[in-house]
Design brief:
Length: 256
């Protein structure tokens, strides 16, 4: 399937089977997740924290993203490869098109950017350039510094209105889906009912959206130093790694 066919297939899941999306940042993870029926592999700028060791996503560059999108693309997954546009790679419509093209050339089949009404012109420009776009509303990690932390959104009528307006603007601009992050469940559910494209939730409650996205390290338990309160770990990979490495170290050091 072409990128546009995959994006259209994702859009057509509205009202149908639920969407399971996960982040992936490298070739082996992409192969493993694709073999498990994951629908979307998000090369998220969360790689800044869980792969590159930055405190947040604000130091992630387009070059970082290109490196990791290319690694995931080498796995040739059936899942849609979604690449995040990092902070300051889409400050104008022209820059947004250029950055999205570079991500697409590296293997991204759709791109994601943060924000609502204020980003609609950029979304339209990228879509018109032939690259599918997924929106991202609610808590926006690229704004963590000016907002002084990660705050749940949709708690006031003004915030709820901004989310609804943003969703409408993104749909009008041509997105094929919208990620909703850390929005109070009632508002996430309302937005999901209101828009004709699938919503993919994280930290919005479990059945409020048309699907869910999770950070792979939260799901497999490989980044024990920070686990978001809404995460539901399904594995303990960090413990497995430590046991295996301890056995290796003991075997090597004991062999002399
Ligand atoms: O970068 C990322 O992992 C994301 C998800 C939190 C949706 O954008």
């Amino acid at each position: 399937m072409t990128a546009r066919e995959k994006a259209a297939a994702l859009r057509s899941r509205k009202g149908g089977s639920r969407i399971a999306a996960l982040t992936a940042y490298d070739y082996p993870t992409a192969r493993l997740l694709d073999g498990c029926g994951t629908d979307v592999l998000l090369v998220g700028d969360s790689l800044g924290m869980v792969v590159l060791g930055f405190p947040d996503t604000t130091q992630v560059t387009l070059d970082h993203m290109l490196h990791h999108v290319a690694a995931v693309a080498r796995a040739r997954p059936s899942a849609l490869i979604l690449g995040d546009l990092p902070i300051h790679s889409y400050d104008s419509p022209a820059q947004a098109i250029d950055s999205a093209r570079r991500l697409a050339d590296a293997g991204a089949e759709a791109v994601k950017l943060e924000g609502g009404t204020e980003q609609a012109a950029k979304v339209r420009a990228i879509v018109d350039a032939g690259i599918p776009v997924i929106g991202h509303l609610g808590m926006l990690p690229q704004h963590v510094l000016e907002e002084g932390g990660y705050h749940r959104k949709g708690r006031t009528p003004e915030q709820a209105k901004a989310i609804h307006d943003g969703a409408r603007a993104l749909v009008d601009a041509g997105v094929c889906a919208i990620v909703l992050e850390s929005i109070v469940p009632d508002i996430a559910r309302d937005v999901t009912r209101a828009v004709p494209v699938p919503t993919i939730g994280i930290g919005c409650g479990e059945t409020t959206c048309d699907g869910e996205v999770a950070v792979i390290t939260d799901v497999v338990g490989s980044f024990p130093w920070f686990v978001p309160p809404f995460a539901r770990p399904e594995g303990k990979v960090a413990d497995e790694v430590k046991s295996a490495v301890k056995r290796y170290v003991e075997r090597v050091k004991g062999a002399g």
